[in-house]
Design a protein that fits this description.
The protein has 460 residues and is α/β, with parallel strands linked by helices. Helices cover 19% and strands 18% of the residues. The strands form 5 sheets. The protein has a 9-stranded mixed β-sheet. Strands 14-21-20-16-17 form a 5-stranded mixed β-sheet, with no helix packed on it. It has a 3-stranded antiparallel β-sheet with strand order 15-19-18, with no helix packed on it. It is elongated, with a radius of gyration of 36 Å. The structure holds 2-acetamido-2-deoxy-beta-D-glucopyranose (8 copies).
Length: 460
């Protein structure tokens, strides 16, 4: 191979190498798919940039203005960081050809109004960082097209109104974080806030605002607190509101609820979510009724049972005449089998108040008690049977198979449950024990026998 034979490709390679080197501006660092021009004293975006970049870091510069199509030359751009610049507004079409953006960091700039057109076309955007600007207003349609949005940070601004109504289940199905903390909101449109998708409510941060104490405000936070949202747990002391709008009279309303005693909501709403645990012991073939009494009550409850052998049971899923689920949540199984044993969990759901409560029942199904003997008796019977066989062997042989059949030994159910269960069930006096066995009735952990055969033994 001589050099003279392939001059063309070599030249081309040299040109390419040279060319790509030229596209990395001298003050930046270009590493594979990343261009970092942070803290480079830039007042303008460099003209030539590597076209295959996915990440572009322009933070800590002096950018104050961006022209239309500023990122035209970077069609693969996904992460754009422009924190700590001097941007006070964005012209139209800045992100025209950057529809692949997933992360846009404009934090610590000087933006004042987030205009409707700013993020148009960024339907792949997942994270939007706008904290620590001077934003006083967020225009209504700003977030409209951002259907992939997962997290949006508006903290540390001067926002007084936010277009909560523009966020709905179908428009923002992935939004789980909306940070509006440390702003200047005094009264929120609580009806709009309550209509937010559940995931957004769970990830809505509103602490350190200038809220004015009132019952509608308190009602919303009270519910969120009940549901244990991190946004409240992590910032309990930063949740303040001022009485009669007087900033001097601010109270930490998650700690001091006294001011809200006159709010009627507290009496309307039920107690915190609780779990009741009960044990039920029945014998095979019995009819079982499991109640779903929880802390929730009212007419609008819907019930779901999770059973170990049949999975989820709802009123509409029942496909079996041997099972019924009553409107009051009671589950009835006509003839339980041993393998129906296990933990049954009922969830009562109050859709209106978005509350739920759970009841657990540990069901143990035993073989029919008449056939279960105590170990001593079992051994005795075993001996007797063996004796019979020995006698038969001694006296009935030789025997032609056509004239007599050897009886098979009777199947004796050997206890498959542990001894402690037995003692707890039959710990009553021998006479009671006899009664339970004779009636083939149901026994409970706490000795308590209902007329119909089944009920619970509540543990509290
Ligand atoms: C930018 O997008 C416009 C349409 O919005 C298109 O006409 C134009 O060719 C694109 N420019 C580049 C450099 O891709
Ligand atoms: C509360 O917000 C103010 C500005 O509104 C800010 O200076 C302060 O640091 C914030 N405090 C906390 C604890 O976030
Ligand atoms: C019940 O509420 C808890 C939070 O308290 C929640 O995690 C769970 O998903 C809710 N279950 C249903 C069925 O809504
Ligand atoms: C609650 O109502 C009582 C009587 O109606 C009134 O005296 C009291 O000041 C009210 N408390 C608050 C915090 O508004
Ligand atoms: C339960 O036992 C019956 C027979 O007694 C059997 O047909 C059924 O498949 C068992 N179910 C499970 C979930 O084990
Ligand atoms: C109901 O039972 C039939 C047969 O017994 C079965 O084909 C059907 O898939 C069941 N439907 C449901 C919802 O379980
Ligand atoms: C639920 O309804 C069923 C049938 O109407 C009834 O037998 C049962 O006692 C009720 N349970 C409760 C807890 O009210
Ligand atoms: C249910 O009861 C059985 C027998 O009494 C016990 O072995 C089991 O651990 C209990 N399960 C739960 C979840 O309490």
């Amino acid at each position: 191979m001589t050099r003279g034979q392939y001059p063309g490709p070599l030249l081309l390679l040299l040109c390419l190498l040279h060319g790509s080197q030229e596209t990395c501006p001298s003050m930046c660092l270009c590493v594979s798919d990343t261009v970092s021009c942070s803290s480079s004293g830039l007042a303008k975006i460099p003209l030539s940039l590597p076209p295959f970049s996915v990440t572009f870091d322009l933070s800590h510069n002096h950018l104050s203005w961006l022209g239309p199509g500023s990122f035209n030359s970077m069609p693969r751009l996904e992460n754009l960081r422009m924190a700590h610049n001097q941007l006070s507004s964005l012209g139209s079409g800045v992100f025209n050809n950057a529809s692949g953006l997933r992360l846009l960091d404009l934090s610590s700039n000087k933006l004042q109004v987030v205009e409707q057109h700013y993020f148009q076309g960024l339907w792949r955007l997942e994270e939007l960082l706008l904290y620590n600007n001077k934003i006083a207003q967020v225009e209504a349609g700003t977030l409209s097209g951002l259907s992939s949005l997962k997290k949006a940070y508006f903290s540390l601004n001067q926002i007084t109104d936010f277009p909560f109504f523009s966020i709905q289940d179908h428009s923002h199905p992935f939004l789980t974080m909306l940070d509006l903390s440390s702003n200047r909101m005094t009264r929120l449109p609580w009806e709009d806030v309550k209509a937010l998708p559940r995931l957004v409510q769970q990830g809505l941060y509103l602490h350190n605002n200038s809220l004015i104490c009132d019952c509608s405000m308190y009602s919303v936070f009270w519910h969120w607190n009940l549901r244990g949202y991190d946004s409240l747990k992590d910032f309990t002391d930063e949740h303040t509101c001022s009485i009669y709008g007087d900033p001097q009279a601010a109270i930490r309303f998650l700690r001091h609820s006294r001011f809200f005693h006159n709010c009627t909501l507290e009496k309307v709403v039920s107690q915190p979510v609780t779990v009741f645990l009960s044990n039920v012991l029945v014998s095979e073939g019995e009819r079982v009724r499991l109640d779903c009494q929880t802390s929730l009550n009212g007419a609008d409850l819907s019930f779901t049972w999770l059973s170990p052998s049949k999975g989820y049971i709802t009123q509409s899923s029942i496909n079996d005449t041997l099972i019924s689920l009553f409107a009051n949540g009671t589950l009835e199984i006509q003839a339980v089998k041993v393998n129906d044993s296990g933990l049954y969990v009922c969830t009562a759901l109050d859709i209106k108040q978005a509350l739920n409560a759970t009841r657990e029942v540990n069901v143990t199904v035993l073989l029919p008690p008449a056939e279960s003997f105590n170990t001593g008796y079992t051994t005795l019977l075993g001996c007797a049977v063996t004796m019979v066989f020995i006698l038969m062997y001694l006296y009935l042989t030789p025997c032609r198979c056509s004239c007599c059949k050897q009886p098979k030994p009777p199947v004796i159910p050997i206890a498959t449950y542990d001894a402690s269960t037995l003692t707890s069930v039959f710990s009553t006096s021998p006479r009671d024990q006899h009664k339970i066995q004779a009636n083939k009735h149901v026994a409970f952990m706490e000795p308590m026998i209902s007329e119909e055969g089944i009920a619970w033994a509540p543990e509290c």
